[in-house]
Amino acid sequence: MAVESDDLRSKLGEKGELMLAVSEFEEPLEIHLHDTDIEDGTVRIELTDGVLTFDTDEIVAAWHHTHSLADFGLED
Asked: Residues of 13-28 as b/e, b for ≥16 C-beta within 10 angstroms?
């Protein structure tokens, strides 16, 4: 899956957060509008203890995730 910077930036702007599967990481990454910069084929995420940077070419999937009341044990 080739991800273009403009498409990724647009989806992030629309949803506010996205999940990414990146080939060099075992677990999906959650990115947010407030801590992520996407420029010229590079994603830069500001974390509490540093900065994570990778190329958009390394993204194998991107999706928006949601939460439910059940996720938090609050269902009726």
From this structure: eeeeebebbbeeeeee
